[in-house]
Amino acid sequence: MAPARVEEQILQREAAVASRSLRTSLLQADVCVCGGGLSGTIAAIAAARNGVSVVLVQDRPVLGGNASSEVRLWILGATSHMFNNNRYAREGGLVDEILLENLYRNPEGNPLILDTILLEKVREEPNIRLFLNTALLACDKDADRIARITAFNAQTSTMYTVAAHQFIDCTGDGTLAFLAGAPFRIGAEQRDEFGEQFAPDAEYGHMLGHSIYFYSKDAGKPVTFVAPSYALKDVEKEIPRFHRFTTKEMGCNLWWIEHGGRLDTVHDTEEIKWELWRVVYGVWDYFKNSGRFPEAANLTLEWVGTVPGKRESRRFVGPTMLRQQDIVEQRFHADAVSHGGWSLDLHPADGVYSEVDGCTQWHSKGVYQIPFSTMVCAEVPNLLYGGRIISATHVAFASTRVMATSGSNANALGLAVALCKQLGEPGSDQPLDPIQLLQKGHMATLQRDLMRFGQYLPGYKLEDADDLVRQAVSVSADKNFVLDQLPADGPPKVLVRSLAQMLPLAQGAVPVFGVTVLSAVAATTLTVQLRGSQKAYNYTPEVVLAEQTFALVAGPNALTIDFGGLDGGIVNPQTQYVFLCLLQNDGVAVATTQTRVSALMTVEHECDQAPPDDVGVDAFERWTPVRRPMGHNLALSVTPPLAAWAADNIRNGVARPTKRTNCWVPAADAARKLLTTTWATPQTIQRVVVHFDTDYDHALESVLRGHPERAIVFCVKKWRLLDLSGGAGHETELYVEDNNHLSRREAVLAAPVTTTALGVEILELNGDERHVQGGIFEVRAYA
């Protein structure tokens, strides 16, 4: 709709005066979010969707911060490019929604398209008023509380005053928290303060620097480059790791062009940016004019960042300070509201000029919890910490700082302010203070609301008393998938690395497995191990439960793997994913299958994590997946069949694989892919939430790295809700959706329906259903 026509103003005249003031505007909201990076964007949307009025103030022309087209860093978190043992670890809630939407619209990884997605998400929320190009200048307090902030938009020459009940600081540097007087730290703690053995020494340096990325493209003809006068003159002399430069690695792959760790990363940002420009243009001059890169002749410099990607500055102090041990030991927190899984990732303060590696990364054996008490301020009770400024030591920050983790925290912040509003004084618009949510009852409510929202909280289950599906007499299906035989119709897999089929086994007896060796180039041996994890919810195959060695003849071999025959038999000691490991032998090729099933995958032994003895992290093997279209399951038989995909899984309170599949998958030959929930008495239903499988193991990097799919193959594309209370032949269709590509779908019926049987029917998957069997993790129904 075109804007209303404003009567044309021919001329405006003003006489000279002593001075003038800028135009001012007063805004009021339930919450003011300062900073529109990924965290601020998500916090604002999460709050707005839960009934909170939001003013979102962003000092840049686009949203997304380091993920935006201004910086172009990929969004990553607990999945860590799928290079760790954190299976099914991708963040839930709005992080998941944004990454899946970006995959659907932008599988090529164009950062400009990501900009449009973030802007659209915010613009679609009527409860959000967005102010771009608007910089926070000051805050006013009433006693210990923030009353209002002042911000300026140079584009509109307007000074804004924003009054709100609550404030979320997602500015990156903690500008609001700093102005409000909240306690903070900069730099690294000594080892003995918190017993953190990975704390860096002065030689390594106590701060992470900034990076600037650049893109190139092939112009199709020779391109001349004349370097600006400020470009670095002697790359080989100045940059110790110069030999790592290659014209094939641009953008985020050159993250190690980093500087500023010895400077004030808040106030020296412009100086740091100029030094990074000096390096980038010097490196490009080196590519184009050193004579060492003839392949660069037709390359032109397409884009260089103008805003440095900042890693570290202030960290603010809350009731809990996350530390190295919380991450490595995966400690339990009663106020957990999010999760992390990125490595402890420290960089030398000298950055690109350092002679040591650009980073030192040590992984934990699995994901870890992040508590709400790292995000609240005891001294300023209506202030919440968002993004990378949460309460953590320098070492713990090395893991929590990444964007998807910060975005997951932001899910919690948005729902926290919504809950504070709901719990406020009756008859008053004054909400509860966020720190009061640390009370046991309130925290349980926040955790419930988060899991309803799609957030993953390791170690927690959704106990939802309002969910009618939990109260049902039964949840059933015509025929569930069972793992008995996967056909040998996939490509041969040569065991150049050890390969493991992950299998969800209940505690107790271990099945007999059949595996086909397609070819052994000569007589040899193949060792097969059954492994598990020390902690049932981890995916680190560190415990050898059983082992067999097979003598192979040259050519094909059929293996029957029966661990029950050894020493009177073995049992799986705990319900968990076990690993059927075929150890490395590059003279052996085994059969794989094209069949892909929700919550079933293979991994390969990529490397060993072998830290020094004195850094406080574990040594272990890292087993990682190969991305689709490769990464096939083993062709195998299982006797007795493995029945781990039952219909009743959809109401167990966990909406992704953990130590169980936690999902229902219909059998490929089922007459209908219909899940039926039945009640003893009629139930009135108006809203149904269904959680599909979008492969939470996939990292879904947002930019630069492309993806072969627009929608995850396991994800249900078309589905419907049915009232089945009329019996066979008397179904009533209540809701249907086509072209879905997201995990969590919410169906709100036009009018409530009263029924004793509700059906959820899968009509079509996004993947090729000849080879893909996708499922459902969760169904919830509400009056």
From TrEMBL:
PANTHER family: COB--COM HETERODISULFIDE REDUCTASE IRON-SULFUR SUBUNIT A (PTHR43498:SF1), FERREDOXIN:COB-COM HETERODISULFIDE REDUCTASE SUBUNIT A (PTHR43498)
Protein name in UniProt: FAD dependent oxidoreductase
Domain of life: Eukaryota
InterPro entries: FAD/NAD-bd_sf, HdrA-like
Keyword Metal-binding: yes
Keyword Metal-binding applies: yes
Keyword annotations from UniProtKB, A to Z: 4Fe-4S, Iron, Iron-sulfur, Metal-binding, Oxidoreductase
Pfam families referenced in this protein's UniProt entry, alphabetically: FAD_oxidored (PF12831)
